[in-house]
């Protein structure tokens, strides 16, 4: 349920409503919208008398939230959520670029790629150490060793890092080494895993499931947020359709749709969607143009020899071109690429 206050409602009136709700053991989430202050109410709202709330001075309306993903909905919180990874804000005015190899293959390669992409403007580095491979015979990742190399490369370049967690059993390891925990497309509806993620303070990057609707995706985010971890970043990575000229169909329409339905930040991964490095640049440009808060791309110094996803990995010089292109698009839509320091 939310309480919407009148435009220019007095602070003392807002406080009276807050006190009333707190005395009744509800938790509150205040959000200053463009015109109205909105108070989100957390708890068993069924026992709340909505008419009583509407009688308070300064209250314009009180409504029950109809969306099943209540806490993630824009109704509950009209203002954009900014998730902080280290000191990097995701979901604000600026656009954040994440880049790195599909998998951490060895110490040297992750250091080499991290140095190159951060020099060209990537503010977060990526690299998988526990890989969700379609075939059990494919490279499965270096495990803890991979997380360690990724963290060292991130620290050396003074940026945070993101890596995919596949099992609850490894959560402690991720808390030790990783700044953003990625939940891959294949685990978007692993509800046991999602529930566990509400107990960590780390930001979660929740990728869209291969055949998930936007509503299912937001409901998965709700598992994490409602359990107590508000730091969720959504990542569109393409869905499976009848079209087979690309690896997946990059549903860029989900970005403005999510922006309307939810306050959570949304980034786009054109690498996994397209499956072909030649198609990554145009879709990265388009992602920025439709309002994504960032993009995540795979970069490899020797993609022909990559142990996973070499075909879609950009060469460092192509990443540099991508950065130049998206800078222009960002400026054109009144945003800019995030630059720290
Ligand atoms: C990845 O980002 O490494 C990955 C495997 O992506 P997805 O879950 O989107 O397939
Ligand atoms: Mn990959």
Account of the protein in words:
The protein contains eleven helices and 14 strands. Helix 3 (107-119) runs parallel beside helix 4, helix 6 (191-197) crosses helix 7 and helix 10 (280-289) packs parallel to helix 11. It has an eight-stranded parallel beta barrel with strand order 7-8-9-10-11-12-13-14, surrounded by five helices. A four-stranded antiparallel sheet has the order 2-3-1-4. The longest helix is centred in the C-terminal third of the chain and has 17 residues, at 316-332. It is elongated. The chain has 341 residues and is α/β, with parallel strands linked by helices. The mean pLDDT is 96. It has two domains: 2-63, 2-Layer Sandwich (Alpha-Beta Plaits), CATH 3.30.70.1140; 83-337, Aldolase class I (TIM Barrel, Alpha-Beta Barrel). The relative contact order is 0.13. Strand 9 (161-164), helix 5 and strand 10 (180-183) form a beta-alpha-beta unit. It is 33% helix and 18% strand. Bound molecules: phosphoenolpyruvate and manganese (II) ion. The site of phosphoenolpyruvate (PEP) has 10 residues, from loops.
Short description:
The protein has 341 residues and is an alpha/beta fold. It is 33% helix and 18% strand. The protein folds into two domains: 2-63, Alpha-Beta Plaits; 83-337, TIM Barrel (Alpha-Beta Barrel).
